[in-house]
């Protein structure tokens, strides 16, 4: 502890807030990874798909019931039959590579086997999602470093500045490692036949 610290030395960086924001970036990455289909059907693969419903972009699970009746089939029971076409269009344009089949208000999504080429494409998409997460985390670092610079201008000591910069960098490095590990796991999962 400092014996003679003035008010300006009482700078405390909100590391909980930094961690909360990084956790948010990871949660977002997990959702995006969940949407990358492997050979198995999963309701979460539709999570990032948004439908233009009633004038706003809406998640599919808010316009219909998503079910997985069998390992290679996802169904969506659209509540408002006026939205069936929009849901179908959203899926077609989502890049999931699935051809929706209509059966009244039920949209059936047969999950095709993944060929080698498609698996490689998906690992690239996973890489892009991971890069978005890394960028988000680097932005959090930049914000924190800006706060530290401002505190330095307001009079915190150089030792304190170095301490906080190291603290932030260690948090960021640990988080980037988690992103890289999650990406590696997801890419392995995609490549498994």
Automatic annotation (TrEMBL):
Any one Pfam family here would be: RRF
Compartments, as annotated in UniProt: Cytoplasm
Q: Does the keyword Cytoplasm apply?
A: yes
Keywords tagged on the record: Cytoplasm, Protein biosynthesis
Q: Which GO terms describe its biological process?
A: cytoplasmic translational termination
- Cellular-component GO terms for this entry: cytosol
What the entry lists under InterPro entries is as follows: Ribosome_recyc_fac, Ribosome_recyc_fac_dom, RRF_sf
Q: Molecular function (GO) terms listed?
A: ribosomal large subunit binding
Superkingdom is Bacteria
The chain positions of domain Ribosome recycling factor read 29-191
Which family does the record claim for this protein? Belongs to the RRF family.
The job of this chain, per UniProt, is described as: Responsible for the release of ribosomes from messenger RNA at the termination of protein biosynthesis. May increase the efficiency of translation by recycling ribosomes from one round of translation to another.
Name listed for the protein in its UniProt record: Ribosome-recycling factor
Name of the coding gene: frr
